[in-house]
Specification:
Shape: elongated
Structural class: alpha/beta
Number of helices: 18
Strand content: 15-25%
Largest sheet: 6 strands, antiparallel
Number of strands: 15
Strand order of the largest sheet: 2-1-4-5-6-7
Radius of gyration: 43 Å
Low-confidence stretches: none
Helix content: 40-55%
Length: about 550
């Protein structure tokens, strides 16, 4: 149940606190006073889409919070929200588009807030009735009521399998000319890649070898110089020979003093390291044995790989993967007839399974439709539509993602008239009452504790308005009801009545929301009936409405 709604800087509402109560809560006021802004603020704190245009002019952000009580256990468990006596939902909306959402101080995303909000409260807007005019939504309403998700999931899985098989068949059933062109293209690409005799990692090796060959003279000159210095030549001693001679000179005195012994050992270590270096230099020099034209061959190979990479992949490994794919595709096309025959058998089996699942889903829908018809008719008769007939009509269609059922809601509002599609014969008031009936039927299956009706009385007047008011009163005995209305019959039936008023102060428009006393309610109902100039007759009429409403509520 919604206990408190706090609003800051939403449209023309600078600040407002509305303490809702159990039962039937009504909000009334002049057109443009800000009643629907209250609903917009409530939608925002429940995670619905909120435009930056909602932010009051001159403010850098808007803030809405809502306190809910009597929360069913486990309602937010999957979202990480712990059970509590109360939930405090908060949302801040900034002019730069940033949103900050919290539940009991815990940050959450707008999507999480929307999911949580949909479990706490249901908003029925004044334009929701127009959805009934869209026949594609009728099956959605039926499935929402039916709650046969396992059957829908089973059908969806089977239909997805069938669609996948049909896509594969379609790919194989290309015309012969297109097929031959594709096969020729694949053969050419495969031959070109096979002629290249690609080896994994060779592009890196070739790049390194080309760099070596391009700088071969520098490398050879450097290594020869280093080798001469280390090993010497025919007439000159190298560093190794000189170092060995120095070591031999010190060997004669190494036993005479520890310092000379240490010096000799150090020379021994240096000689060993230098010996390794000298042989490494020689090995490097021996590696630089190039055949004439090797650089040209390496350059040619690199150019070939460059051209192939532009067509088949950025690396040799990617080109080899592409080659495997081409071979596989060519094999499949070569064996397409066999594969196609196999897929045709799979398709037939999948089609039978789809039809079996669709038939089962359709049987369940038709059974649920009968129950839905009776429940909606009961609701509509309580809304002063005693002569109405309502039927959920089925037509079979080609299987698609929703099944084989084409569902339409038909009605006849007058005795002797044939059943016809709702969108062709229903008036605005009839649409509003049918939608109200459906909302009440659906809400009885849900754990939602609060229902909001935003001007659902559009197109309703007279006795029908009284019946809508009585229906609201009945609903409010099981769920909390919030209703924005212009009709005195509905406002009179409320347990708690709020007035939404607009004014101007210091050059700014503002809106205030206040709970009305019994006397104030009488005056507000008189204003709804006759306008600003209140007469005693209007006040007496308003008093009669209140008294009649109080008498009716005692019977509910």
């Amino acid at each position: 149940m919604l206990d408190l709604l706090h609003i800051e800087n939403i449209a023309i509402i600078e600040q407002a606190d509305i303490a809702f109560r159990p039962g039937f809560n009504a909000l009334t006021g002049e057109t443009g006073a800000g009643k629907s802004i209250v609903i917009d603020a409530l939608s925002a704190v429940l995670g619905q889409r909120a435009s930056r245009e909602l932010i009051r002019t001159g403010a850098d952000h808007a803030f809405v919070s809502a306190v809910f009580s009597h929360i069913p256990e486990g309602l937010g468990e999957d979202l990480g929200v712990a059970d509590a006596q109360e939930w405090l939902l908060q949302r801040e909306i900034y002019t730069d588009g940033k949103n900050v959402c919290r539940c009991n101080g815990r940050p959450m995303t707008v999507t999480q807030l929307r999911t949580l909000g949909s479990r706490l409260l249901n908003i029925h807007g004044q334009h929701d009735g127009q959805q009934l005019l869209d026949e594609t939504q009728h099956i959605v309403y039926l499935d929402q009521y039916g709650r046969y998700e396992p059957l829908q999931s089973a059908y969806s899985a089977q239909f997805s399998v069938l669609q996948d098989i049909r896509r594969k068949i379609s790919d194989l059933e290309m015309n012969e000319a297109e097929k031959e062109r594709r096969m020729d293209s694949l053969r050419f690409q495969i031959a070109e890649l096979e002629r290249a005799k690609l080896q994994p990692g060779e592009d890196e090796e070739l790049s390194e070898r080309r760099n070596l060959l391009r700088n071969s003279e520098k490398f050879i000159s450097a290594l020869q110089g280093a080798d001469f210095c280390l090993n010497g030549g025919d007439n000159d001693a190298g560093a190794l020979s000189l170092l060995r001679q120095a070591q031999e000179h010190l060997a004669s005195v190494r036993n005479l003093s520890d310092s000379f012994s240490e010096l000799h050992d150090r020379l021994e270590g240096i000689y060993s390291d230098l010996y390794d270096i000298a042989y490494t230099v020689q090995d490097k020099k021996d590696e630089f044995e190039f055949t004439p034209g090797e650089l040209d061959a390496v350059e040619g190979r690199c150019d070939l790989l460059y051209r192939l990479k532009k067509k088949y992949g950025a690396t040799v490994e990617q080109m080899l993967e592409y080659l495997d794919k081409c071979r596989q595709e060519l094999d499949e096309m070569t064996c397409a007839d066999d594969t196609l025959a196999h897929l045709k058998k799979q398709e037939e089996k999948a089609r039978r399974e789809v039809m079996a699942a669709a038939d089962e889903l359709s049987r369940q829908r038709k059974a649920v439709a009968k129950e839905l018809e009776q429940r909606i008719l009961t609701e509509l008769r309580e809304l002063n539509m005693g002569s109405i007939r309502f039927e959920v009509a089925f037509e079979e269609k080609k299987p698609d993602a929703s099944g084989i059922d084409e569902v339409r809601f038909l009605m006849s509002a007058n005795v002797g008239e044939d059943l016809r599609p709702i969108q062709k014969i229903a008036s605005g008031g009839e649409l509003a009452r049918i939608m109200l009936a459906m909302k009440n039927v659906f809400s009885s299956q849900e754990r939602i504790g609060t229902m909001v009706f935003d001007e659902v009385d559009t197109g309703v007047s007279g006795r029908a308005a009284q019946k809508v008011a009585e229906k609201m009163a009945r609903i409010s005995r099981e769920k909390q009801v919030l209703c924005v209305t212009h009709l005195p019959q509905i406002a009179a039936m409320a347990d708690t009545h709020f007035s939404v008023e607009k004014g101007v102060s210091d050059g700014r428009t503002f809106t205030k929301v206040q709970e009305l006393s019994r006397q104030q309610r009488r005056e507000e109902l008189a204003r709804l009936t006759g306008g600003e100039q209140l007469s005693q007759t209007m006040l007496d009429g308003a008093e009669e409405l209140l008294a009649a409403a109080e008498k009716f509520k005692k019977t509910v």
